[in-house]
Amino acid sequence: MNRRLLVINEKDNVGVLLEDCKAGEFCCYKDENVKALEDIQFGHKIALKDISRGDIVYKYGEEIGYALEDIAKGQWIHNHNMGCRRGK
């Protein structure tokens, strides 16, 4: 079963899950399927491509942070692997 995914802007490298997704399930993005590498809950972010440590993370066309470590396509993105410079 393909899980629904929200991607607003072409430069986004993450998508927002519109429903819970279990590891091994696929999320639809354009004509591409992204396989979830771990369980990810509704409303959380999934990497649409590999993101290297230090790379900018884009959601809705805006910079929301940077990768604290290498993040694989399909991996959950949250504060355990993404930092933010806002307000610092």
- The counted number of beta strands is 10
Low-confidence runs: none
Evaluate the radius of gyration: 12 Å
Tell me about the biggest sheet? 4 strands, antiparallel
The appropriate CATH architecture is: Roll
CATH class value: Mainly Beta
Which oligomerization state do the chains in this entry correspond to? single chain
Domains, number: 1
Mean pLDDT value: 93
The name CATH uses for the topology is Archaeosine Trna-guanine Transglycosylase, Chain: A, domain 4
Number of helices: 0
Helix share bin: under 10%
End-to-end gap: 41 Å
Q: β content, as a range? A: 35-45%
Across the major sheet, the strand order is: 2-3-6-9
The ordered H/E elements are: EEEEEEEEEE
**SSE-based structural type:** mainly beta
Describe the structure.
0% of the residues lie in helices and 38% in strands. By secondary structure, the protein is mainly β. The protein has one domain (2-83): Archaeosine Trna-guanine Transglycosylase, Chain: A, domain 4 (Roll), CATH 2.30.130. The strands form 3 sheets. A 4-stranded antiparallel sheet has the order 2-3-6-9, with no helix packed on it. Strands 1-4-5 form a 3-stranded mixed sheet, with no helix packed on it. It has a 3-stranded antiparallel sheet with strand order 7-8-10, with no helix packed on it. The chain is globular, with a radius of gyration of 12 Å. The termini are far apart. GO terms for molecular function: lyase activity. InterPro entries: SAF, SAF_UxaA/GarD, UxaA_altronate/galactarate_dh. Residues 12-83 form the SAF domain. It comes from [Clostridium] ultunense Esp. Keywords: Lyase.
